[in-house]
Task: structure prediction
Amino acid sequence: MRTHTRLNPTSIARGSVAIVMAAFIVLMLSLLSSVIAYANSANNTKDTNDKTNITDTPTLLTTKQRHVIDSFTTFNGQTLKQVNIGWESYGELNHDKSNVILITHYFTGNSHAAGKYHPDDEAFGYWDSIIGSGKAIDTDRYFVISVDTLANISAYDPNVITTGPASINPETGKPYGLSFPVVTMRDFVNIQKSVLESLGITKLHAVVGASMGSMQAIEWASAYPEWVSNVISVIGSAQSDAWTTTALEQWAIPIKLDPLWQQGQYSKNAPPLEGLTAALMFITQIALHPEYFNQVGLSINHHALETAPLHDILADHKITQWLYQRAKSRASKMDANHLLYLVRACQLFLTGQGTSLEEGLAKINANVLFIPADDDLLLMPYHARDANTQLRSNAATKTDPPHIAYASLQGPYGHLNGVLGIAQHSDTISHFLRLKDSVED
Result:
């Protein structure tokens, strides 16, 4: 019989202010997955607790692939024609295709979870610190695959393939705009399932995701329990409760108030960039932590009584100027309507997409590891704690109970400890993936 184990969290060493600020500047130039990955990759070389700190490991190279679905029916019953979705993979499928690990990405991320497209690329995938040869998610053992979501926020990134409101509706020859159907985590899961089935895959050794990706991971285990052996939910949640739903709405409001939004019918040449930039400012701040922001303030000489804002109501403090410029630099590759659709998908999330959270969690038979961040201000640790408690209670009623585990992240990044600080739990992840290891060598 499998047993329940509570995994003790480990502490990571705090770097100097100079090191933290360097990583922060890299991060804030873009929270797009490529630049987050670059910062995370830098962490690989300085985290002494990361067992995967192997300087001679060859760079993992990958290629973006395209998957086309002729007709896709959404969870709410609407139909999309000619759906295009990007995906990429790392490692090799074994002979019985039992070694598959699906990585489900976060809100501003995409399927570039690890490695590079070209050896001279500056940026690594966002979880390069734990995906690769000899790393926690070992590509010598596992076939790792990740898929771009519908309505991916980075609609204009050449390395993202997605169908969403900015895409051309094949039936009208014009962008969908708000005629695009509302989509849910179940739709993201079903798109991923279509990609997997096209490769002859019918079983997942694990689904692993951070933030919005954790929602997809746990939805997989509830919707298709016969597929999923293990789930790792990083900085995640099993539902969008009242607090989370209203917090997410704050990201949508600036876009809707931008006069250029025009009820979603704006042109590509005149998008609501100011509204999108403001939304990204909100997202960036809540995804980090006051400790981090205050370190930034020190580096740019923030002072409450700065001269310009003291004498001019239209002038901004240095820290708000700093945040605005970094948000604006990201907005050009993103689409405002896509952001709104991702917000709604998160707001609509309820494990199992049924009548209650208890019902959805009761369908899960997989082993589950929760890894929240202690100082997360976005998806606070109570989300993981409550789901963990419910799943452990469910497991106690089963003759062969699944393994339910919990380990927390520490560090100065807040919510983004789940991306930038994930290597501190390399051993935890590696051990968990081998608890129920049906993978044949």
